[in-house]
Amino acid sequence: MATGGEALGIGVIGAGLISAYHLAGLQAAGGAAVRVVAARTPARAAPLARRFGVPEVVTDWRAVLDRPDIDGVVIATPDATHEEIATAAAAAGKAIMLQKPMAMSSAECRRIMAAARAARVDLQISWMHRHFEEVVHTKELLASGNLGPVHHVRMRNATAGPHEPWFFDRAHVAGGVVMQLGVHGIDLTRHLFGEIETVIATTATLRPERTFPDGRRVTSEFEDEALATYRFGGSALCSHEMSFNEAQGTDRFRLEIYCADATLLLRSGRGPLAIYAPGVTGTRGWFTPELPARAFGERHHARWLDILRGEIPADPTAEDALAGMLVVEAVYRSAKRRREEAVGPVGEES
Q1: What is the mean pLDDT of the chain?
Q2: Minimal CB count within 10 Å: which of 71, 97, 131, 161?
Q3: Parallel, antiparallel, or unpaired for β 72-75 and 57-58?
Q4: In this structure, are residues 54 and 36 in contact, taking their beta carbons and an 8 Å threshold?
Q5: Does a cis peptide bond (omega within 30 degrees of 0) precede residue 292?
Q6: CA distance 71 to 10
Q7: How far apart (Å, rounded) are the C-alpha atoms in residues 92 and 32?
């Protein structure tokens, strides 16, 4: 691991759209030297490497793990590859930033976590939404206790859906909108409001035939719509709407929080964060706080690099990812069995 003022050596495995987010975030954060990008073909990785000034491109991800000048790796590949690559990275002694969803199942999540523990390497799961400024400010407000108890939460995750065929192929992914998009909302609600204890859900596949903007077509059996109701440990309720069928979408997410003494709207028509809490803001109306202006992904990746340097404690994002996967699995069980389902505890095999 790099020491002192030396830049941390980072390798990026995968060259899709999400890799650009990680590369931009690392660039904005500073303190890291991204030395190599790995992808199946140079044609896919080379444009990304040029864009961010990465000096080397390889087509075998194992070549990244063999390098002694790599301290940590970003793994941003299809879901079905996560367990193999992450466990190999752990065995090679590399710190890991693993793209969500963590794996194809809770069992795979547990095996990845066990490999990281055995190798004593840090394992982080990429939950980008936690690091948005409006979310950070909201978490601080909720922790203050000045808003009163949370009664109801409405979370919306909606996009037009992925534009790569592998997202609709069971050889690469284990689920549709719940697994690919809804996991963000599940993690964010757990992050802000605590453990989800029970789930009632329904799912639907409304567009089994899809045509991408470039003309490619795909047939999908995965759910592209889902509605779920969660009950938190404190008995608050959450309604979670997930869609792969909205042309405009929700720009990452939309969140409404209804407390006893306040209402908070995140990423709504009122801006990144709007607060109605006269007892806190001192105004009889909506208050929009001024939030820090940072580059997209900067806060997220600066925190990861601080963890790798040992400047702050590691975040339990892997444990959170496992807990979130247990919620996902409860959503699918509930939709199939048409009944309320308990979410299994992290400490027990499902």
Answers
A1: 96
A2: 131
A3: unpaired
A4: yes
A5: no
A6: 6
A7: 19
- Map residue 284 onto helix, strand or coil: coil
- Checking if the pLDDT of 111 tops 80, the result is yes
The single residue listed with the structure tokens 């639907």 is 204
Q: What are the pLDDT digits (tens) for 28-62?
A: 999 999 999 999 998 989 999 999 999 999 999 99
Q: Burial code of 70-104, b = ≥16 C-beta within 10 A, e = fewer?
A: bbbbbbbbbbbbbbebbbbbbebebbbbbbbbbbb
Amino acid identity at 281: T
Write out pLDDT tens, residues 183-194: 999 999 999 999
Say how far apart CA 313 and CA 36 lie, in whole Å.
27
DSSP-assigned states of every residue in 285-337: S-B-PPPP---TTHHHHHHHHHHHTTSSPPP-HHHHHHHHHHHHHHHHHHHHH
Distance CA 240, CA 29 (A): 32
Report the C-alpha gap between 58 and 46 in whole angstroms. 9
d(CA 163, CA 165): 7
196-204, strands of its sheet edge to edge: 271-276, 263-268, 254-259, 150-158, 237-243, 225-232, 196-204, 341-342
**Cβ distance 272 to 234 under 8 Å?**
no
Tell me the two tokens of residue 229: 């109701």
Q: Establish how many alpha carbons lie within 13 A of residue 43's alpha carbon, considering only the half-sphere containing its beta carbon.
A: 0
